[in-house]
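Researcher: Predict the fold of Protein translocase subunit SecY.
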Amino acid sequence: MAGFAESIRNIWEIEDLRNRILYTLGLLVVYRFGTYVTLPGVDAATLTDINAASGDGGIFGFLDMFVGGAFRQAGIFALGIMPYITASIIIQLMGAVVPYFQKLQREGEDGRRRITQLTRYGTVGITALQSIGYAINLSYGQTGSAIVIDKTLFMITTVLVLTSGTVFVMWLGERISEKGIGNGISLVIMVGIIAFLPQSLFNEIDINGDNIFIVLIEVGVWVLVTAGVVLVSQGMRRIPVQYAKRVVGRKSFGGSTQYLPIRVNAAGVMPIIFAQSIMFIPSTFASFMPDNETAQQIGAWFGQIDSVGYSVLFFVIVVFFTYFYTAITVNPQQMADTMKRQGGFIPGIRPGKQTSEFIDTILTRITLPGSVFLGFVAILPSFAMAFGVTQGFAMFFGGTSLLILVQVTLDTLQQIESHLLMRHYDGFMKSGKMRGRRV
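Model: Structure tokens for Protein translocase subunit SecY follow.
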């Protein structure tokens, strides 16, 4: 504990790191304040009463978690940063199949700037489309009585305000990444998720107030699941790579053994985000057709996130996208070529094609347990709800929520660790095994 307190003091003594952390916290506070600002034309008190009567279950309650409660409160940040995530996913997928985007990825900094610009344009277009569906759902759904202005005017203002709100949140995330600490976009999502944790835990305690032992068991299981996710997120297979010894003048280089790390979960949280986006599509289209009974039935089925059918389909899609995303982000051929150019080789494996095939075989084998684990984590909230855990608290037992919390926290701690080590301080956690520790 003394070492942890010393690390906190070291963080505070480094002016640049201290300013970055305070800057990040300040922008996140601005984002949280924005979630409580209601859209023009909405009676906030009436909407609160309607939401209280309808409960917080279903897919809308799940979506609400990622925007810190702004979705059900009809806040100006109701769509949050999710349209940006969707646009980023689309651009990334196009980079694997469209030659133009492949060319941009090879153009270095200029190509990255162009991709970022296209992602921003895509975010505006996706937000505009989603805001139309959101406005229709507010106007013609059970929350329609909360609208106090003309519905056409409400539609126009909602599209403009929601689009502007998402662009502003995107700007906040980019500023945090540039001048703060951690990945700004991920931190924005994490703050929205964390905002639900205290209330969800309080509700769980309130419901099981007569038997606090059950709550302690649930919290214990949650801690164990979180520890398991951390373990798998940090797990990797290290492939030894030998570099040939070279003599340049009077100095010799190489001749050392290094390791090529292959992560068990190389895809991170993206497969669950992909799968969740696919599962959201039917409900999104159903919101555009409130009078179509068939569309509403399909949307209702995909809104039952605690059903067996939904869980099985979700698990299969997550496993598929884990392999798919790993295939487009980890390129064994490129690894083998880079290794060959640098004079490295895997002992017992010929450089070139055989090295590529060897890495690909290991990647395929190690991705199998990673994908199954990821699929299991994705459907853990359904199991938790089946055992009587409330939906709000069950969402923290797995799925996108838990993975985002774990990976964003690890990434932020790793950046703090790097700042400390760069200035010759001990790491943030002396006894830890943070990836990136060099001493």
